[in-house]
């Protein structure tokens, strides 16, 4: 059984190797065919290039060299009429750009000076300044703050009928007083609130 098992494994390994070899052989054949096709294309391009160079030579045009395109020969100027010199271009053309003029000759009369106008360009995130003045209008009468714990004589205008045996903060009843004299505040200051009304609410035992 062991020998039979080993033989079976060897046969399977040999079959796998044969399959891989066949696959590699197929890839090599494909690469060889592709290389042959590329060589045929290169030969065709070389023959076409040689034919074009021969046509250029027949037309009298210098073919391009391997180092780059040859410098074109400048055309010779057409011959001028006999007895007259060839006019030269003015101003003479130089390699550098001609600078702009720096001064002008005055014409008939005085030339007004050039007017230069500046336009401000807004810059984003720029600090802006703004001036303003306080309006000194009519001063109103300042009223004091009446703290809790202040005392004043008052007259009860509207009372409350509350249950004396119940203490709670629900279902409150409004009350209203009218002050009849000065208010004594805890900071030993007084203020005249005669005629002012005070609104209250009562609950629980009063």
TrEMBL record:
Residues 45-114 are annotated as: Disordered. This is Conjugal transfer protein TraB. Residues 71-90 have a biased composition (Pro residues). The lineage of its organism: Bacteria, Pseudomonadati, Pseudomonadota, Gammaproteobacteria, Enterobacterales.
């Amino acid at each position: 059984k062991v020998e039979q098992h080993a033989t079976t494994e060897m046969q399977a390994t040999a079959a796998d190797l044969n399959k891989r070899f066949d696959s590699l052989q197929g890839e090599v054949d494909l690469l060889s065919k592709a290389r042959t096709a590329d060589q045929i294309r290169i030969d065709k391009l070389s023959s076409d290039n040689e034919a074009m160079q021969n046509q250029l030579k027949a037309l009298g045009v210098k073919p391009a060299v391997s180092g780059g395109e040859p410098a074109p020969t400048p055309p010779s100027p057409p011959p001028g009429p006999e007895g007259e010199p060839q006019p030269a271009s003015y101003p003479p053309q130089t390699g550098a750009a001609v600078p702009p003029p720096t001064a002008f000759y005055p014409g008939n009369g005085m030339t007004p000076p050039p007017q230069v106008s500046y336009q401000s360009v807004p810059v984003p995130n720029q600090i802006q300044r703004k001036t303003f003045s306080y309006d000194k209008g009519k001063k109103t009468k300042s009223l004091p703050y009446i703290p809790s714990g202040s005392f004043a004589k008052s007259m009860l205008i509207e009372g409350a009928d509350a249950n004396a045996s119940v203490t709670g903060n629900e279902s409150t009843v409004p009350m209203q007083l009218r002050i009849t004299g000065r208010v004594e505040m805890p900071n030993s200051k007084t203020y005249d609130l005669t005629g002012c009304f005070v609104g209250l609410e009562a609950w629980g035992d009063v």
